[in-house]
Design goal:
The complex is a heterodimer of chains A (about 150) and B (about 140). Chain A has about 150 residues and is an alpha+beta fold. Chain A is about 25% helix and about 40% strand. Chain A has five helices and eleven strands, in the order E-E-E-E-E-H-E-E-E-E-E-H-H-E-H-H. In chain A, a hairpin with a 3-residue loop joins strand 8 and strand 9. Chain A starts with a strand and ends with a helix. By secondary structure, chain B is an alpha/beta fold. Chain B has a single domain, classed as Rossmann fold (3-Layer(aba) Sandwich), CATH 3.40.50. In chain B, strands 2-1-3-4 form a four-stranded parallel sheet, with helices on both faces. Chains A and B meet through loops of A and helix 5 of B.
Chain lengths: ~150, ~140
């Protein structure tokens, strides 16, 4: 079962899953039997707002590290997210076409974006944040947002 | 989404309760849709009840939602309009969420707050037209009931 780090900032509760890595934008990457599942963190989904549309790079797309992997249109913004892993997209969450609100409802679970067959996961992983480092970064960002 | 008793007998009017999200684009769309509906599309059969009056416990507003089926138009997932009608003793016959309507009309991207852009105005109109059909169904159900 996934465990979480959790903090409350202002009136918002943010969770960080401890079984995966994160890039600086809050895109998570979780290795599963040689492939890497990716998605958005709880903080990212809360900050971005309710998702209206999610466009994920299609299967067979070759991604370099930090290439755009998804474009989200939310009630607040249109925003692109970078891939935390290099490789080939081998699966796209089918839920995203009809019910992208899954990102808001379950960002670490049913709201995943894609699965990537990695080129060099070990090297990519070195460039990512571990859960504790991302938690600290996210907490600082959340506190700064709360002051605005 | 139908979420209540749509066959409330003797319905001659339908109450419209939009989001009161001031300063939010989707809240503005919900209110603009409500105005289109009660002023233009179904002035004889649709009645606006401001969410703020329900929140304040206004007796006339509570009576209105008790006496007639309601259509709520929520601007976000908090669904304040729907919850408030239910807490006020009313029946939500149909609840619209602006985001869900936008997914059906992606060409009408809403922007602006105090003044909606053209996309927002068109989205509000599309929502109002969908709501008008629901009003007609409810009134027909009342007449048949």
């Amino acid at each position: 079962m996934t465990e979480f780090l959790e903090t409350i900032v202002d009136k918002f509760t943010f969770r960080v899953a401890t079984d995966r890595f994160y890039n600086s934008e809050g895109v998570w990457a979780k290795e599963e039997n040689g492939r890497v599942r990716i998605g958005l963190s709880d903080f990212v989904q809360q900050r971005s707002g309710d998702v209206a549309f999610a466009e994920i790079k299609p299967i067979e797309t070759i991604l370099a590290f930090e290439d755009e992997v998804a474009m989200l249109e939310t009630i607040k913004v249109n925003i692109a997210y970078s891939s935390p892993v290099s490789g080939k997209v081998v699966e796209v969450n089918p839920v995203m076409a009809e019910a992208p609100e899954a990102i808001n409802q379950d960002p670490f679970g049913e709201g995943w974006l894609a699965v990537v067959e990695p080129l060099d996961w070990a090297a990519d992983c070195e460039r990512l944040l571990d859960p504790q480092a991302y938690f600290a970064r996210m907490k600082t960002e959340a506190e700064e947002e709360a002051k605005k | 989404m139908m979420s209540g008793n749509t066959n409330k007998k003797n319905a001659t009017r339908v109450v419209i309760v939009p989001c009161s999200g001031i300063g939010k684009t989707y809240g503005s769309v919900s209110r603009e849709a409500a105005y289109d509906l009660i002023e233009d599309l179904r002035p004889e059969t649709a009645q606006l009840v401001p969410l703020s009056l329900l929140v304040l416990g206004d007796q006339a507003a509570r009576q209105a939602v008790s006496d007639s089926p309601s259509i709520t138009i929520d601007g976000c997932k908090l669904a304040c309009a729907t919850k408030m009608v239910q807490e006020s003793g009313g029946t939500v016959a149909h609840d619209f969420a602006v985001l869900d309507v936008y997914r059906r009309y992606r060409q009408f991207k809403p922007q602006g707050i105090a003044e909606l852009n053209e996309g927002g105005e068109k989205l509000a109109r599309a929502l109002a037209e969908e709501a008008a059909e629901v009003v007609d169904q409810l009134i027909a159900g009342g007449k048949n009931g």
